Description:
The complex is a heterotrimer of chains A (238), B (324) and C (273).
Chain A: E1 4-13, E2 16-26, E3 31-35, H1 42-50, E4 57-62, E5 65-66, H2 72-78, E6 80-82, H3 95-103, H4 110-124, H5 139-152, E7 157-161, H6 169-184, E8 188-192, H7 196-202, E9 205-210, E10 213-218, H8 220-225, H9 227-233
Helix pairs in contact in A: 3-4, 3-5, 4-5
Chain B: H1 2-16, H2 23-48, H3 57-74, H4 78-102, H5 107-126, E1 137-138, H6 154-176, H7 179-189, H8 191-196, H9 201-227, E2 229-230, H10 232-236, H11 238-251, H12 258-276, H13 283-298, H14 302-310
Chain C: H1 2-16, H2 23-41, H3 45-68, H4 76-98, E1 113-116, E2 119-122, H5 123-145, H6 147-157, H7 159-164, H8 169-191, H9 201-216, H10 221-241, H11 247-261
Antiparallel strand pairs in C: 1-2
Amino acid sequence: MSLLEIDSVTKRFGGLTAVSRFSLGVGAGEIVGLIGPNGAGKTTVFHLLSGFHAPTEGAIRFKGVSVIGAKPHEICRRGLARTFQIVQPFVNLTALENVMVGAFNRTDDVAAARKRALEVLEFVGLGARRDALARELTLPDRKRLEMARGLATQPELLLLDEVMSGLNPTEIEAIIGLIRRIHTQGVSLLIIEHVMRAIMALSQRIVVLHHGEKIAEGAPAEVARDAKVVEAYLGEES
Amino acid sequence: MAAEALGGLALGVLLVAPPFLPPYFLEILISVMLFGYLGAAWNILGGYAGQFSFGHAAYFGIGAYTSTLLFLRLGVTPWLGMLAGGALAALFGLFAGYLSFRYGLRGPYFSLVTLAFAEMLRVVAVNTKAVGSSIGLVIPSREAAPVNFIFAGKLPYYYVILAMALGAVWITRLVARSKLGYSLLAIRENEDAAEAAGVDALGMKLRAMALSSFLTALGGSFYAQYFAYIDPTITFGPSVSIQGLLQAIVGGAGTVLGPLIGAFVLTPVSELSRAAIRGRAGVDVMLYGLALILVISFLPQGIMGWARKGRGHPARVPLIRRRR
Amino acid sequence: MYGLVAFGLSLIFGVLRIINFAHGAVMMLAMYATYWLFTLLKVDPYVSIVLTGPAFFLLGMLIQRVVIEPNRFAAEHNQLLLTLGLALFLENLALVLWQGDFRTVRPPYAGASFVLGEALVEVPRLVACGGAIVMAVVLFAFLKATDVGKAIRALAEEPEGAMLMGINVARIRAVAYGIGAGAVAVAGALVTPFFYVAPDVGESFNIMAFVVVVLGGMGNFVGALLGGFIVGLAESLGATLLPGSLKQLVVFALFILVLLFRPAGLFGGGRGR
């Protein structure tokens, strides 16, 4: 059984069809990349998966159970965590407190949450900044913080939404390393990304979305050569 | 640590000094404690959860009327009546809160709705003979009857409200250090992100609302017993709502001691102004308005926030957010 | 009547994105101004509009510049508190200066009325209603036709775009607040012949104005005017059904319902949640 099954999902906003008959499966232990030109509907898919929107048609099952109608925090509890395209830290809380909020997903005890949060902060490389206010963190650190907060909820599947945007090449390398480490911890990943180098390097499988429809799926090398994909990107900044 | 010693000293003074104070000062102190208490109750929902209620008078009024009616009509001691009032207020709070939160009311819209609810209760009270309409209710007997929450002098009332205020502060501290506290802060900062991180926003907000309304109602009952007279305007009117939030904002919303500090600062100011410009009602509220404007403009984190910053602590809960 | 008051409120919200609690207080001040002009200088309330309208427009701009503008970047609820503080300050300033007694403005035609069919129509109320409609039309035309008006609308709809177009945002914001204040001042003057003047007068109008604005859609100027009619109707309806001041309940209930189910207002175009 796949970890995540998206079954012919369509999402319409009034007259606009953001996602059209999209199907995707993610198995346990996989890293799947989701790419496509701007406005293709990728973040909408994430909203649908995490419970912020409900699909107009189609089904979504996580660990065999439908997530349609479930509230975001319930979905998180079931083991699906996400980050946001524009980072959303709790700016007036410290890094540690930010991550603790995620850790509380699994425990009611403050000390336990604190311990878990500290571990996760170390893991993502923010251990030294744990008492800094989130508003004082640099952009790369905020991205790490967001990932840490998601990791603290002990997800089985982590949705990463353009974590590389705004980062320079060195920082990108570092995040690629971090994502690999997350993967070795047993977390499956579905990644939206525009930085081609990163997504090619990380993904075992890539899915391409264009105008809300899946136009290609396969190993990175195949997809890169696919004529439809190339055409979709021509004329768009990628 | 200097802060702890100072706190201990202050506490000591609060406990020991009052019997030796002239009645006027005792009255002021009681007011300080009451407003600080109301501020602390409001703070749980407003400062920590970030839901600014402008209609907390609703709960204050429910508390005051419930305990008073139970006492006058059924002879139930206000000590118990208080609890009944609190429970009733909590229920109303849950009702109003559920309606508001379930339908996604946030920020100013939430504030307006709470105001509307309080006003509705006021109008109902004014038009209901059974609760005394605009004439209000009087608690007749002034003979000491401690079992019925009636004391001869002011001193016992002081100790009661002192206990309540300290209790409220202590409860705030407990909440702040619990999962609920962290969740509320997360909700205040960014509700969507909090949800995505597994925080049950609706459930947490309702919890805060229930606690806040329960405590506020107890304050209403105290008021009724201390002043022995209540009417719809006093209890359900906007002034009560404003008093509560004022202490918290000026002292520092989202901090444990903020509301109490706010009360200590604001009440003497209002008293002094009233004494200085005798015979003219409204000077004190005018100064409240000015204080609010000044605090928001220059000290948005309130006094506690500013004090913390000065000591190099990261400011706990600044209310300013730069729009990016 | 409510429509005019609400119009100003909606304008202020649309452009400045703040809910102006001080609106009622400004109206109250205008009513006092009208009162003093009438009592001391024997100026007819309707005539005094020529004076009070522009004066309060300027006052509004001043308030905006001094109090509100510096806090532009504060969190939403903080700005709300700011206007609340302003309202408290102004209302109680009036209380301190002029005390709480009711006063009335009684020009000679105050009691004039005539019979229209089955109803008794009071002249002052009719004039107020007519005046409100006239003001509404004038303001509407102003927004549509003049440069400043267009600038205001642009700012309301697309703040960043407006800045890029070279519109002096700060000045327009002040102007918008000023217009709001001026409108409410006119409303105040129109109302004095049949309403009492006291420091707390602002409050009752305030709440009603909020209800109207939400009903019509925050920032939807026309909606505000239409909303005013609806609220007035609802209140009258309530008055026939329920005794005493309970009629307000009808309005409040309507308010809460709209906030819950159609926060964008009945006519849409509002900001919603």
